[in-house]
Amino acid sequence: MKYKNIYVAATSQHVGKTTSTLGLVSCFMKRGLKVGYCKPVGQKYLTIENLVVDKDTVLLADLINFKIVPEIHSPVILGPGATEKYLDDPSLVDLPATIYHAEKVLSQENELIIYEGTGHPGVGSVADLSNAKVAKMLNAGVVMIVEGGIGSTIDMLNMCLAIFREEQVPIIGVIINKVLPEKSAKVEKYVQKWLQKNDLKLLGILPYDKSLAFPLIKTISDVVNGTITYNADFAHNKIENILAGSLIDLKELKSSQDLLLVVSTKSINEAINKIKWLTEMHNFDHCPLSGIVATGQGTIDSSTLQYIEKYSIPLIRTELDTYGVVVRISKIEVKINQSTPWKIEKAINLINDHVDLDYILSQCKLNK
Q: Of the four listed, 14, 55, 71, 312, which is most buried by Cβ atoms within 10 Å?
């Protein structure tokens, strides 16, 4: 059976577009459908074997197990300088034609194609390829992702839907993401009221799962301009909480099994000695540290290095001070990628457990 195309859009960046796309693709595949994927317009890209492709496409290729063909799975990349070139001479390349070609090839091979949007709905407008225009070109119904809340959620949703209404693109429904469990009932009650008044379907509410926001040691090392000087093989350790070297106590150590110790190099020996003493005193059966960031200059004692090696703790050295490190870490926007398999599984389960997949398919049947 053939289905109408689905276009996954969001009210802004980092709301959960890729996570939701990943979940939808996987869930429909598990139902036995042959599902295709495409990110028609991308901004952030990778170069793989001299091929330029949107980085989200790489993640989905790994899940669906398809060989990436850039002109099919990532046809338009609006990277640095692309918009200026387009505005100088739009005739240099027929961008819509590249997207139509991708759709034609994918529709021949699949029963259902899920297209992932980029940024907020207006992204791409500079090249006449806003999310709304692209969705219309693809004859797709839109699944809109919005972040949890009530007033702010409705305001942002109404503004973003306007661009799709302007292009007369049908909205399949809305998924509200990152909703605190204790506020879920209230959010559902009031957002649902507004959606019903505007003849829109609430497809599901995804509870906030803090583990999806856990960064990796490698990510932290990059944002603090650091170098992993010990145990670099464990750069994919996840971090749940930050432990300040000056505030080490039993309560902090018990707060997580994946702590990042941020401490000045001059104080690292004292901090590790205190951690060793507390964990031994209270019979911890594990090391609570997943990583250490040592800031500034200083010498690390051999006993501290032995502890680091014993528990395979990756150590990041950086010239930033402790405050600067914490500020930069606090601004990290964490996205799902191939290095976070536990996040991929959770994302799929969230969509499967909380989204009305039957309704989505019912709205996409071409013979209804």
A: 55
